[in-house]
Input
Amino acid sequence: SIVERLSEPHSGPVPFSVEFFPPRDEAAEERLWRAVRVFERMHPAFVSMTYGAGGSTRDRTARITGQLERETTLLPVAHLTAVNHSVDELRAMVGTYADQGISNILALRGDPPGDPLGDWHRHPQGVAYAEDLVRLVRDLGDFHVGVASFPEGHHRSPDLEHDTRQLVAKLRAGAEYSITQMFFDVEFYLRLRDRLVAADPEQGAKPLIPGIMPVTSLATVRRMVELSGASIPADVERRLVHAAGDGPEEDRQAVRAVGIDLATEMSQRLIAEGVPSLHFCSMNFAKATSEVLERLGMDVLVA
Ligand code: FAD
Output
């Protein structure tokens, strides 16, 4: 399981993991496999594959996660969302994962397709919350389940206390760990950890894995932040905007350098604060994440 993996010996100060998304076409899939092979040499504790809204992307998540399970030395986690799925379809998808040899699932509610911040409608025969999905998956067999957590609070939570209660509920329902939404201010993570431990020490002891995005494009990070309801602190934004320059196109090289500095600084602070591991949103590229890992002292070239 993921929790066991996090306690195994690892190179560098803490274990790390990597998030991928299902590639759209053959060229993108080749690029993903190149990144996978690079990461494989760096021994991540696990890798995860996100789950989209359409049928074909969902099939790709299952197929590629299955290939990761069978054809690599990596431990894959398949994401699963409740969007547009009846309970029967969710059961079938979990069955497909099991057939692929996948036993680690990240249970999510998902966002409305098209407009992530728009109204969420439960499928008439579906589930309403990730908490219900955790129970459903656990009832289906010997699966290890993780959930999402939100250092700045989920955008639909009326306040942070409500948000923390729902996270505790997901963990009590049987989730073994959570992975946070990306954030750019370590304080948000630390406050969530404090709230969680105060709300329920037993659940608060489960790994709260920080999600880190090494920024390589100002435009991309702005869009992602907008879609997720997370925020960029003013000083971080200033550094990125300064690097982007005032030309018609952002200076990608300079933004990338600052993005790697920021991810390294945040990771160092998180390590000093005793995090169980670091989870990197790779965007299916190995380079930025491995640069951060190298700067953190991970022996990234070890075969
Ligand atoms: P929930 O835990 O169900 O929470 C949703 C909202 O409902 C919250 O505001 C919560 O406070 C509230 N709530 C929960 N339970 C109750 C209750 N019993 N009563 C009242 N209110 C309640 N999306 C994808 O589409 N595919 C992915 O692969 C994907 N991967 C992700 C990975 C990570 C690490 C993270 C952080 C997010 C990911 N997402 C993904 C996005 C996620 O699906 C959305 O953020 C979604 O809006 C919330 O999902 P959740 O699982 O946290 O939902």
Remarks:
- The chain has a mean pLDDT of 94.
